[in-house]
Amino acid sequence: MSQTAKTHDVTRETEELFRILVQGVTDYAIFMLSPAGVVTSWNVGAERIKGYKQSEIVGEHFSRFYTDEDKAAGAPAQILATAAMEGRAEREGWRVRKNGSRFWAHVVVDAIRDGDGSLIGFAKVTRDITERKEAAAALEKANAALFQAQKMEAIGRLTGGVAHDFNNLLAVLSNGLQVLAIQSRTPIDKKMIDGMRRAIDRGASLTQQLLSFARQQPLQAHVHDVNGLIREFWPMLLRAGNPSTHVELALQPGEAFALVDAARFEATLLNLVVNAVDAMPTGGTVVIATDTVQSNADMTPALQAGRYVRISVSDTGTGMSGDVLAQAFEPFFTTKQPGKGTGLGLSQVYGFITQSGGDVHLSSQVGEGTKVDLYLPVAQPATVVSVPHVASHETVLLVEDEPDVLGVASELLVSIGYEVVPASSASEAAKILKERADISVVFTDITMAHGISGLELARLVRSLYPKIRVVLTSGYSPAALREEKGALSDVLFVPKPYRLADLAKALRA
Domain named PAS: which ranges (predicted)? Predict the structure, then answer.
């Protein structure tokens, strides 16, 4: 055999091996295109990924793999032009299978030239990377959710700290005014005091709104039928609308029990309905719906697994953009005109629901309305336990680490007939309890800057002095108190800034 014949045989053998290799690849679509983009070869991987058999696709233009949007934008011609000019083009994008379904593809197109440098076609390699894209999207979503949670936690800590300090200032003013009101005898003094008290009440309302967002508000949570609460509050919700707005109910049949502060839940509903009505200046419909759902990572990523009562408030209003949606729960953020809103509405909703063990999900599209989903853990109906009446006592151990609050609160207690033993820390109070046998009530702040906390003092009193009653106070929510199952079950709580009537009621309960 001549050398030329041997060379031809080797070439044919090499080409056959290469063909077998290409045909054996199933994870990649490998095929050739003419200079005009017509398919001239087709491997098994291409058939598996795109769904076309070789007889169906050879001779057809490769643009049929592109979406209608990409074809309209001229993407097929652009990738061939780039490959012809630069020798290679690489892209990612949606591609269409024979059955019409889409997949995310990584595409490489190489220009093929002969020995003279003339373009004779293109080699195209496509890989289905849909799973990788979905995993990356899921990771991005999780990172975004984590960032949002961390941001809200940081803002909440800052807000809660400021509100707590402000509450202490209000407590000094409120307690001092109440002492003055008792001692005052002239009408002008009472008029001035009443005006100052109203200003303090407005300040206290603001701190409660901030503490609500920070999840540190005092809650009076009990097991309620959420559907029953909504029906009872229905007349008030109707009045929140206007002649061009309809408020409708779509409650699940039967009862839906959850552990919730009824008053704050009603305020939350009213807040959401008012927001919905404001978002529909030309009229529309607000729907309040309830159902019971099983949580999952896609629907409620921030919640633990379990069953939840979902309360949905949806409207047909103007909707929100993505930027607005991302900031909607932040305190003082508002899109309303000056004087039309404080920007604390949705932040209160967020704080209240998350403090109640649930979560809030906000979805919206510009021009298509907004939907707010509230999730509250399902609870079992509870039996009512009565609290026995205890006679009032005369000596109160007052524990407060803020000197101004301690001084004015002492005057307030003395003004209503109690003997007061002041202590500037829980540790000091513990020493006083060892030395004195006439203490009847311990009235202590929960949060102490130094030493043991008011809760730890309460546990100590319950353990060593079971006959002494304990009343706690704070601008923060006593979350740890609710977690106590037995030791502190009879301890009362009075939120700061407290009124004289509330304090006297707690001390004499």
Answer: 14-71
Q: Which two tokens stand for residue 415?
A: 């003004």
Helix (H, G, I), strand (E, B) or coil at 451: coil
Measured CA to CA, the distance from residue 108 to residue 92 in angstroms comes to 9
CB atoms closer than 10 angstroms to residue 464: 11
Selected from 3.40.50.1000, 3.40.50.150, 3.30.160.60, 3.30.565.10, the CATH number assigned to the domain covering 222-377 reads: 3.30.565.10
| Residues ≥6 apart with Cβ < 8 Å to 237 | 230, 247, 269, 270, 273, 288
CA distances from 440 to 136, 314, 459, 495 (A): 63, 53, 16, 21
CATH among 3.40.50.360, 2.60.120.330, 3.30.450.20, 3.30.360.10 for 14-128: 3.30.450.20
C-alpha dihedral sign at 480, 481, 485, 487: positive
Q: Per-residue b/e over 447-462, b at no fewer than 16 CB within 10 Å?
A: bbeeeebbbbbbbbbb
For the stretch 44-57, pLDDT in tens is 888 888 989 988 99
For residue 324, the surrounding DSSP H or E stretch is helix 322-327
Assigned token pair, 191? 């008029």
* Domain extent listing, the chain: 14-128, 139-213, 222-377, 395-507
Q: Sign (positive/negative) of CA torsion 287, 292, 297, 303?
A: positive
Single pTM value for the model: 0.43
Query: Parallel, antiparallel, or unpaired: how do β-strands 284-294 and 245-250 relate?
Result: parallel
How many angstroms separate the CA atoms of 60 and 92, rounded?
22
Burial of 498 (0-12, 13-18, 19+ CB in 10 A): buried
Q: How far apart are CA 496 and CA 173, in angstroms?
A: 12
| Residue 476, both tokens | 């923060």
Residue ranges of alpha helices (H) inside 87-183 are: 130-183
Return the number of other C-beta atoms located less than 10 Å from residue 330's C-beta: 18
Q: What pLDDT shows up at residue 310?
A: 93
- Asked whether residue 210 carries a pLDDT value surpassing 80, the answer given is no
Report the alpha-carbon distance of residue 161 to residue 112 in Å, rounded.
Answer: 68
Which tokens hold the place of 66?
Answer: 């592109």
- Architecture of 395-507 per CATH? 3-Layer(aba) Sandwich (3.40)
pLDDT in tens, 365-397: 888 889 999 999 998 875 433 333 333 457 899
Looking only at the bridges linking them, the beta strands covering 88-96 and 119-128 are: unpaired
